Amino acid sequence: MKAFQDCYPMKYAHCYGCGRENAMGLQLKSYWNGVDTQAHFTPGMQYSGGVPGHVYGGMIASLLDCHGTASAAAFACRERGKDMTQEANPARFVTVSLSVNFKRPTPQGVELCMRAQLLGVEGRKVRMSLCLLAGDQVCATADMLAIELLPEAP
Ligand SMILES: CCCCC/C=C\C/C=C\C/C=C\C/C=C\CCCC(=O)SCCNC(=O)CCNC(=O)[C@H](O)C(C)(C)COP(=O)(O)OP(=O)(O)OC[C@H]1O[C@@H](n2cnc3c(N)ncnc32)[C@H](O)[C@@H]1OP(=O)(O)O
């Protein structure tokens, strides 16, 4: 299955969190999971917070952010009757608002799952509800607003 991030044109494939062209980055990959989306990632031990064994909150926000922007593009394409993975130049989205609620410490050394659910598409705006799980434990949730870049944007 082709990841959403693998559909980004080269010019937009350098993101630290999810750019396939960023060798030093996380290279997160997001996919459909039914009507919602999901991504998996196991942060290395260097991404610890103050206490070893727990993931740094900024890393949690990064994973939600990158899964969210990719999901926004996929959701918007779907709303327009298109399949993002079949598009040569799919819609490009950036985050303008991300509100993370850290529910419980996120354990290190386990695969994390990020999920996004579409709340609504309104013109260039895509609103989503996101969550990050370790096993069946919800460690963080987030509300996100992503905006579609205009075609002439750099
Ligand atoms: C496919 C790959 C995607 C990756 C794209 C990567 C890079 C793109 C390269 C260049 C794009 C240019 C700027 C972004 C630069 C770097 C982002 C790197 C990726 C990230 O790391 S991502 C997290 C950081 N992210 C930002 O760096 C976003 C900063 N921002 C902006 O670049 C502009 O803000 C933009 C382009 C979003 C819109 O600008 P614009 O001129 O095209 O349109 P406009 O201002 O009219 O806004 C349209 C409607 O969005 C509403 N709106 C705007 N801002 C809002 C906010 N903060 N809260 C609530 N609503 C907001 C307005 O209220 C209006 O709503 P309404 O139409 O109802 O009035």
From TrEMBL:
Quote the cellular component terms of the Gene Ontology held in the record: cytoplasm; membrane
Q: Which GO molecular function annotations are given, in alphabetical order?
A: thiolester hydrolase activity
* Enzyme Commission number(s) from the entry: 3.1.2.2
Identify its membrane topology class.
Peripheral membrane protein
Reaction catalyzed: (5Z,8Z,11Z,14Z)-eicosatetraenoyl-CoA + H2O = (5Z,8Z,11Z,14Z)-eicosatetraenoate + CoA + H(+); dodecanoyl-CoA + H2O = dodecanoate + CoA + H(+); hexadecanoyl-CoA + H2O = hexadecanoate + CoA + H(+); decanoyl-CoA + H2O = decanoate + CoA + H(+)
Subcellular localization(s) per the UniProt record: Cell projection, Ruffle membrane; Cytoplasm; Membrane
Keyword list, A-Z: Apoptosis, Cell membrane, Cell projection, Cytoplasm, Fatty acid metabolism, Hydrolase, Lipid metabolism, Membrane, Transit peptide
Q: Which GO terms describe its biological process?
A: fatty acid metabolic process
What single Pfam family name could you report for this chain, choosing any that match?
4HBT
For this protein, the record's InterPro entries field holds:
HotDog_dom_sf, THEM4/THEM5_acyl-CoA_thioest, Thioestr_dom
Q: Which residues form the Thioesterase domain?
A: 53-137
Of which family is this protein a member?
Belongs to the THEM4/THEM5 thioesterase family.
Identification of the protein by name: Acyl-coenzyme A thioesterase THEM4
